[in-house]
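Page header: ASSEMBLY MODEL / four components / 244 residues total.
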Amino acid sequence: MELHKHSEMCDCNEVHSEVVDRVKEVMEDTEVLYSLSDFFKVISDSTRIRIMAALDSGEMCVCDLSALLEMTKSAISHQLKVLKDAKLVKSRREGKNVYYSLKDDHVRLIFEMGIEHIKEID
Amino acid sequence: MELHKHSEMCDCNEVHSEVVDRVKEVMEDTEVLYSLSDFFKVISDSTRIRIMAALDSGEMCVCDLSALLEMTKSAISHQLKVLKDAKLVKSRREGKNVYYSLKDDHVRLIFEMGIEHIKEID
DNA sequence: TGAATGGTTGAACAACTGTTCAACTGTATT
DNA sequence: AATACAGTTGAACAGTTGTTCAACCATTCA
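Prediction written out in full:
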């Protein structure tokens, strides 16, 4: 995951320090924002988002996802691992197959809001 | 932005084609999902998300953002351009300063849902 | 037990992306 | 007109990331 480091340099001479100080107080905590960007990073990959859109219809095995998205099982499996680490999907084995499904209803809402957003843009 | 290309290979022998076909029908259109991942990509960078969190308190000039986030004006400016291209912020010039502000109330909701989500994870 | 299929994993490569640096434009002030 | 400061821009570099490839494990079936 991202390292979240940056230089400490600010090359400004004149700053509205009353504004900066006030925002510094009110603004969401930096660590929370780092977690938030990490979360969005997980769902910002087109393969992962297509996997989640597929699983929105119900559980599927790796093979079926591979056929649906026209990608190798390996590529799908790698991305499923990322989604699982982020606790966005869960899995269960049944014989030779491993079935994946969405873990969180919450994420569905974020999806819908995102789609609503991009459809509203001029 | 991302190229959204992938190989067409599927290395599966046995596929539940009735499942795959059904999901293919129901599933959100691929192009929409590509746009969606592009949108999430914009807000998945920690610098950009911190800029947006700052602008949530009101408009700020590049210099103040630079001081607040302890980064160079150049770095801030580059990211502001990305946010502006994505129509997430707007700008106005006043003398030597350029003031940026959030363009879309919609995004605030997506933010809040994201924060709610990461705070709910076990 | 051996063969076949489903799935996972780690290394490597290529593509992408964020920051830096230097040069530049725009505006105000003297 | 010259200076100073705010902000922008493009190239370059380093760090990150997604897919491929090959090898591997797990399970079923003959």
